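Render this sequence as a predicted structure.
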Amino acid sequence: MDHGQWERVLTRAATGQGDWIALVGTLDPGGASHPGEEISAALASALPHNPRAVLKIMDVRGGSRLGPASICSPPFYDGVGPAFDEASPGGPEVYRRRALAALGSVSDHDLAAARQACMAELQRQPGPG
């Protein structure tokens, strides 16, 4: 996959498009310069838009690029700015509120563990200071 294709896939996933989210969960980032960060940012950006699709590919055990610590946090690089501007208007606290509200709408029994892990990760993060 060339750089342009990689960016298109990540951008589409970040907007919450379910098929693209599922695809991102299966990709081997290969030659991307910061693949884990890019995948995490895209999935974190998608979370408020399509929590079910993100939870379906999340690794509840954690420790991977698909774990709660990676994808259940504001999609910012190094705290400088949003990885995907349209996904994070208002900064981390607004993102956190939107993501928690979206997760609250998920009642699927098969996603309960993923939902709880993601909510716990979002609530563990420091608030505005």
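Summary. Residues 7 and 38 are 9 Å apart (CA to CA). Residues 77-87 have pLDDT under 50 and may be disordered.
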